[in-house]
Amino acid sequence: MSDQRRAPAYLDEIRVLLHEVLAADDLSIPAAAIVAALHDHLATEEFATSLYLLWGFLGESEWEQDRAADAAREWLALDHADRAAVRGYYDHWLFDVCGYQRP
After folding, report:
1. Contact between residue 78 and residue 41 where contact means Cβ atoms under 8 Å apart
2. Fewest 10 Å CB contacts: which of 14, 44, 54, 55?
3. Distance CA 26, CA 95 (A)
4. How many domains does the chain have?
5. How many CB atoms lie within 10 A of CB 31?
6. DSSP letters of 30-81?
7. Is residue 2 included in any domain, yes or no?
8. Chain centroid to CA 44: how far?
9. From CA 4, how far away is CA 45, in angstroms rounded?
């Protein structure tokens, strides 16, 4: 059985915002917009909380713009219908890079 399904529609809005991350001089502006856009989806969408935590962290950290751009580029390249690939992305960024504790 495949671990794939249709990607949620809210990702279209996030995709636009992540392209803004790649063009931004000030990461806090698109990061705040990403967090705001995710707010209504936290209880209903499988990976919305992970994306919320990631961009909340990236938007408030002193990271280099390059690191946030890497996260955006990798997310934009994902097949969002492939849940295993999406899960791997969040595992890497949240636990390995951002330092959140694994459950």
Report:
1. no
2. 44
3. 25
4. 1
5. 24
6. HHHHHHHHHGGGTTTSTTHHHHHHHHHHHHHS---HHHHHHHHHHHHHS-TT
7. no
8. 16
9. 15
Is position 102 within any domain? no
The answer to whether position 77 is within a domain reads yes
Q: Which domain holds residue 85?
A: 11-97
End-to-end CA separation in angstroms for the chain: 26
* 46 contacts 83 by C-beta, under 8 angstroms: yes
Q: Give Cα 94 distance to the centre of its chain.
A: 10
Average pLDDT over residues 48-57: 92
pLDDT digits (tens, 9 = 90+) for 17-30: 999 999 988 888 88
Q: What's the pLDDT tens digit per position in 62-99?
A: 766 778 899 999 999 999 889 999 999 999 999 999 99
pTM of the model: 0.84
Residue type, 1: M
**pLDDT value, residue 17:** 94
